[in-house]
Amino acid sequence: MEIELLPLVLVLLASFFQGTFGLGMKYMAPLKWEAWWLVHAFIAMILVPICWALLVIPNLFEVIANTDSNTLFMAAIYGFLWGIGGILFGVSVEKTGISITYGIVMGLAASMGSIIPLFQIEGAMNQPTFPIILIGVALLIVGVAVTAVAGVKRDKLKSPEGGTNSAIQMGVLIAVASGVLSAFLNVGFANATPVAEVAVEQYGVGAQNASLASWVVVLIGAFIMNGGYAILKLVKNNSWSSYRASNSRKAYTWAILSGVFWFAALGVYGQGAALMGKMGPVIGWPILLGLALIISNIWAYRSGEWKNAKKPFNVLLIGLAILIIAICILGYANY
Hints:
By secondary structure, the protein is mostly helical. The chain has one domain (2-334). Helices cover 81% and strands 0% of the residues. It starts with a helix and ends with a helix.
């Protein structure tokens, strides 16, 4: 029983990191967004993944070199596509607000990030857990939608005038694109499995630790997009001087901490998913994002974001209850 519970425990821990890392984004000032984001992306997608992987896989770069080049290319491409989704997320927030955007993106990222790897598995529909997984993912989408509705109702109470219809419609379309592209982070991880297999079969690395090699490859592509976009903004806005802003120690600290937490979520999730077997990315991913949504709303409640919004908060509780039921169903599918 302990061995079977360990993967779920790891995914639960990863969810805490995933739901918490965003707190750092509240402390970007006095750095410009692009200056803060470049530091954050480098820590999260390059420094921490490679250092952690090297600790448990000393031959990391040999493992990568001995992996089929097509596998490496596709894994990095999926990471790059996820990076585009992340940029579009920020654009959508400006047009529609965080609640609508977060609900759409989380719902699509969780569902597509689970369903795409599921159908890439040979004989997926013959798996005994197939209908259970579909029910769990469907419920998770409903739960995310209900929490999004709660967020919209809360935002209307705080700013009844809202935005223009055209801006909101465009924002929703961008959010849909962001959600689809955001799913590719997990698709990339699932397709980078051959990298981990090389580490296991040729270098005797345990499956749990070998998953870190897969993330290194995927996140190189992710950093090319995120880091490249931040640098373009730094050049375009001529905001390099932001790095020398006074009283910026807190901003740097949070950029680093949020970067560590961000990859801690993926690294620990990857270890849990690896222990689940080939169905790990299918079951673990929606659990990760569903729980992260619950945790992020707990932080939002503690910071007073739901103050004086009793009715929307009750709707939120319904959404979170549905998410918990969905997560339990997916956990049962793994068991």
